Amino acid sequence: MLIHYILAPIFALTVVILCHEFGHFILAKWTGMQVDEFSVGMGPRIAKIKWHDTVYSLRAIPIGGFNRIAGMNDDNQGNPKSFSSKSVWARSAVVLAGASFNVLLAFFIFAGVIFVSGYSTVSSSPVIGNVISGMPAEQAGLQAGDRIISVNGNPVEAWTDVSRSTSDLGEGEAARVIVSRAGKSEEYDIMLQRSDDGRLLLGIAPSIEKHTASLSDAVSMASKYCINVLKMTGQGIYAMIGGSTEGIAGPIGIAKMSGAAASAGFGALLLFTAVLSLNIGLLNLLPIPILDGGLFVQILAESVIGHKVSQKTGYYIQTLGLSIILMIFIFALANDVSNF
Predict the structure, then answer these.
(1) Catalytic annotation present for 173
(2) For the chain, first and last CA: distance in Å?
(3) Are the C-beta atoms of residues 189 and 176 closer than 8 Å to each other?
(4) Of these residues, 21, 37, 138, 157, which one is catalytic?
(5) Which domains does the chain have, with CATH numbers?
(6) Per-residue pLDDT tens for 207-252?
(7) What is the pTM of this model?
(8) Among the listed residues 198, 199, 282, 205, the one whose alpha carbon sits nearest the alpha carbon of residue 236
């Protein structure tokens, strides 16, 4: 549905951005900084409430949100609660908190979905789970649920025995497959089909087993998922620096992927949101001015040289960062259009 491609990216981006900003907010409060405003949404303010010196506002455009921490965009001299007046560790903690909360969001989503829905594994038993349309097995008459007894006279006790028994066949040779169906044996001679990568295939897939997940299972698997996604994101960033466009998505790509996830169900949309959260969190740590990683590098550099950069230098640094981000955005958008 078209509505999925509109509402799903808004939902995913808003959850991810608000979690990121909430991380900055919590650490700013914890380190004694003055947070002037925490906003949900962008654009004109439509509602607000002030509590403990912070304005909490709701804005007209329901995408994302932001913090206004005193002293982040100016020195705010004389204010002991401003960002610029705090120690290196306090400022660093606030800057890195956004990405940290993105990782936590992804972890809790993964763990929650796994704990509620369980997880799936590929069965090792030689029972056909799926017969691929248009492939030799379907044309010969094999069916999902058939238990493979033997292939070319070789007994089959596990799914791996199937591929092992067909590995010596050449193109144009038939595999004799005996299956058990409803208590009866059925025999088929099947010509294998060569795939794009050169393998000879029957066109069958193993069955999938569903498992309930304990809390420890969910925590362990969620941790592994987070690590794997972060690794893949890092590899993607490295490839992008090298000029590769594979796997790079801009706003159109995000809308397409989130819409497709929403069409598959709310659980799939949550999993996409978790992956997006890890991607945005890691991207924010790149040492590019205006990103969290760039600000963190600036804080460390200022601690080494013993003084803050001048406003003029800061302006040039921010302009450079904005230019880099704009180029990346245009690059991603062009890739979206070419793949649309």
Answers:
(1) no
(2) 17
(3) yes
(4) 21
(5) 4-118+213-339 (no CATH), 122-210 (2.30.42.10)
(6) 888 899 999 999 999 999 999 999 988 888 887 777 666 666 666 7
(7) 0.82
(8) 282
